[in-house]
Every structure is written in C-alpha cells, then in structure tokens.
Amino acid sequence: MAFILHISERMTNVSPVLLCNVIAILLCGTLQAQDKVSYTPKAASRPMTLVGEILDYNGRSLRFKSTNGEIQTVDSASIVGIETQYSNSYLSGIQLFNSGETTNALHMFQQAMEEESRSWVDRELQAWIVKCYHREQNFSAVLMAFETLVQQDSETRHWNIAPLVWASLSTSDEVRAQARQWMIGSTVSTQLLGASILLLDPTYTKSAESLMKQLTQNANSSISTLAQCQLWRIDLSNRNIDEFKLRRLEDQLERIPKHLRNGPRFLLGAAYGVNQQYRQSVAEYMWVPLVHSEHEPLNSRATLEAAEALERTGLADDANLLYRELVSRYPWSIEAKTARTKLSN
Q1: What is the C-alpha to C-alpha distance for residues 44 and 109, in angstroms, rounded to an integer?
Q2: How confident is the model at residue 311 (pLDDT cuts 50, 70, 90)?
Q3: Do 242 and 271 touch, CB atoms closer than 8 A?
C-alpha cells in the first residue's frame, strides 16, 4: 500500500513526529491516484496547481500529463511543492533517517528502489542513499552513489549533495586513484568530481586546475557554475584574499542558483576568516546549516568553523552553544568529536 505525501521543495529536515502525523491523516482519508504539482509561473503572483501524472522531473524541468491528456513542461525552479504516492518503504526510510537510524534507513531506501517503477522517484531515492553514505562517512560509496545518480540524470537537482570538496579533506589512496581516473573520464560529472578532489593535491593541482577551468565553459549550467566556484579554493589556499576579492565573491554568490549555494557560501565564510573578519565569517558559515542545509557533512563543518571563529572573537559562550548544537544535530560527524573535546575542556 502506498500513501500520498506532500513534499515541498523548501523542506529540508522533516520531523519524524510530523511525518507520523501526516501518515496517520492519510490513513484516515481516501487515497488519490493523481499527482499534484504546485508551481509559480513567470510574472505570476501566486502558485498554480496541475493535476494528473508526473512523467519526469530533473534539474531543468518537470514534464506533466494533465487529466485531459495535455503534456506540459514546467521549469524546475518554479516548483513550490509536489503531492504524489510513495511506498511504505520510502516513507519508513525518511522516518528512520530523521531518527538517526541511518543503516536501517539505507536498507529501506534500497528496498523502495526495488518496488518503484517511476524513474524520477528512483532518482529521489538515490539521493537519499547518497545522504546515508554521507552520514556513514563512506566517501568512496558517496562518490559511486552520486555518480550513479548523475548517470541516470545529467540535469540532476541534487548537485547540492555532491561529494565535491569545499573544506580541507583527508582522502585515501583509493579515492585519489579513483579521482585520477575520473579526471580523464568521458563524462563531465566525473571530471568535475575528480578535479575537485585533486585540485589542491601537490602532484595533480596543475592538471586539476586546468580541467576545472575547462569545465567552467561547459553547457551544463550546474557543472560550469560549480567549476567556477571550485576555483575559489585556489585563492583561499594561497590566502590571496583582499577586500576587492571579497566583494567579487559576494557578487558572484548572488548570481548562483540558490540550490547550488551551500559550497560557495562555505568558501565565502572561509574567505572572511582568512581576512580576519571573523564575525562576518560566522554569519556566512551559518547560512549553510540554517538555509542551504541539504549537505550534512558540509553543515557540520560550517558549524564547527563558525564556532571556532566565535572563539577567536572572545565569544566563548556563543561558541559553546554552537558546539552543543553540532553534537546534537550531527553526532556521527568528525566535527562532533572535535566539539565534544572543546566542551570537555
């Protein structure tokens, strides 16, 4: 049996209690077989609703068959929410994930994929699987799971959870070897991932930087935008940041689609930190977990960086609040371990 569930594009962390309440309401009502899509057309002041069947949904558009048989295409950026049928396994996976039972959630999402016949829902499930591997800190598995997602949909809406490197990261020989292979791969998505991993590697930085610059010209706007932002890391690593570059980064950030801003926003926070503007650094870092919160490992790192920046300004009590928040929300993370140490001192 499946349930109808309203999923808003603006929802990030669904409360398990809320989810249970929604399911309970649905169990008491009559299930509808039709999908509903709410979207805001250009120049419109309020959303409209389509009723019928979602045929496909990717990062560029949603294709919809209305009840009268008409096929319509809607810009993905205009979508406000979707109401559709999901299986028990899918909903159980979300509930388990939000309860912190990541391994069980992963199994549920994998089971739901076996039960699901719609390709666009399969991709949603694949994105949840990427999130599970992120929590398990299995970077190799994250890489492979995300590449599977991109192979299924080159216009994926889920580049905001991609295993791109935004903060300093210790990688294994296996991951670096995979990155070298991906840099010479046939798909631009794998090239971007590989170049990101090796961008600051002393052995491969020149070739990775060259490839990244090529990718800034790619026709896929997500690829080109993310490649441009990845290059910010080079100036940061050289601590080559002044007021002019800070203003330029701010201007560039405002032109980036909102769903791609988490990594670039993190780098802007780091840039302010390099310039010893710690309070502004904290403000930028905290945008990541509070607004651009899809990528949990980046959320935890941004929270840690913000807390440490507060310490540098002498606001120890405020820093401790963030350390406790970090331990509470991301207990599985490396950053939470650091926070526990800070709080015990």
Answers
A1: 37
A2: very high
A3: no
